Amino acid sequence: MMHLTLYWGKNVTLLVDSWKTDSWLSYLLTLLSCFLFSSFYQYMEDRRLRFRSLSSSSTTAVSLLPKYQRSAKIATAVLFGVNSAIGYLLMLALMSFNGGVFLAVVSGLVVGYLFFRLIDDEEPWVVIDNACACA
């Protein structure tokens, strides 16, 4: 049965029909995977933005050679695609309307942002800072 309102409980179907939880252990492992996956999203977003900044910068001492500029742009586009796919999968997981999944994803995004994007922010290199997990 598909829920259309936020509910609390251990019975969740997440992303595919074969990913169903029927015990507290499987539910907690699902929440842990949602938490880790959303933290990984923040890590990948950090890597993508740093790589984009590095590949587009012409004034830094670590600038790329001109013959690698095209490869850097392709790699940035691939990272954007991977990150978008992760963001949309997180959005689909939230569409299960389970309160635990919602809290796991949001707390994973917060912890990932804290560890990967906020603490090591010594210089203002961030070009785009978007709070949406799917952009």
Structure description:
Helix content is 59%, strand content 0%. The protein has one domain. The model has no long low-confidence stretch (mean pLDDT 82). It is mostly helical and 135 residues long. It is built from three helices and no strands. The chain has helices at 24-56, 69-94, 99-118.
Helices and strands in order, then pairings?
Blueprint: H1 24-56, H2 69-94, H3 99-118
Helix pairs in contact: 1-2, 1-3
Q: Give the proportion of residues in helices.
A: 55-70%
Give the N-to-C terminal Cα separation: 30 Å
**Low-pLDDT ranges:** none
The count of domains is: 1
- Based on secondary structure, the structural category is mainly alpha
Gross morphology: elongated
H and E string:
HHH
Query: Which strand-content bin applies to the residues?
Result: under 5%
Number of strands: 0
Average pLDDT metric: 82
C-alpha Rg, in Å?
18 Å
Keywords:
59% helix; copper; mainly alpha; single chain; copper transport; transmembrane helix; 135 residues
Short précis:
This protein is mainly alpha-helical.
